[in-house]
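User: Is it possible to get a 3D structure for a protein together with its bound compound? The compound here is S-adenosylmethionine. I've pasted both below.
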Amino acid sequence: MAGMGDSLTRQSEGEVMDSPAEAQAYARADFSQVNQLFVDRLLELAGNAPALAALDLGTGPADIPIRLARLRADWLITAIDASEAMLGLARQAVAAAALEGRICLLQRDAKKTSLPGGSFDVIFSNSILHHVANALELWREIRRLARPGALVFMRDLFRPPTAKRAADIVAAYASSETPLLQEEYYRSLLAAYTPEEIVQQLRQAKLPLEVKTVSDRHVDVFGRLA
Ligand SMILES: C[S@@+](CC[C@H](N)C(=O)[O-])C[C@H]1O[C@@H](n2cnc3c(N)ncnc32)[C@H](O)[C@@H]1O
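Assistant: Yes, that's possible. Here is the predicted structure of the complex:
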């Protein structure tokens, strides 16, 4: 079987989660703990600067911007996703939280958003990188969208060294999820980039961001852009 050796070749996953079944399965899963940890780390990195314009790339069901908006009433959040199915779920969640005035949802490709350059103080994303086949395009778009001094914080899975290790991670962390979600998790691990590949992408994009492994399956990319 491909990938059972020492080093696992990246196996691309579909970029946009545009099937309604896939979007609903994702939205129904309980990511509350990991999403809150993401928000806590983002706020720790951001500090206390007021009234920031923030951008969430690949927002999915918008759980992260909702948590963020509740904690930072002064932030204006733009949240984009390329999937209409996901955005439908995000709109429902934002409306249920009565946050329509503070979270602006847009259907955009994160690699070419057409949003004005230099317009965001904070750019963040949880779990988009492994979806993107041409990561360099994504990093270049982030650089274009960032204001001077902007904070970038991206968190994603990293690709384990073997397919067996990927299967073990799914068994350890997703055994209570539906078969569809378990299958997606496994494919996401195989589609993820290694920390070394991310360092290489950042070098090519001329983005001076830090790459840090923060758990047995997650990698953070963060820093401020000059
Ligand atoms: C694994 S989900 C993560 C959702 C959300 N960030 C979270 O943590 O709950 C990845 C999301 O990124 C979106 N996505 C993937 N590629 C994209 C792209 N090029 N542009 C915009 N959205 C994209 C997918 O449609 C999906 O909603």
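The first strand starts at residue 53 and ends at 57. Residues 15-17, 31, 58-60, 63-64, 80-83, 86, 109-111, 126-128, 131-132 surround S-adenosylmethionine (CB under 6 Å).
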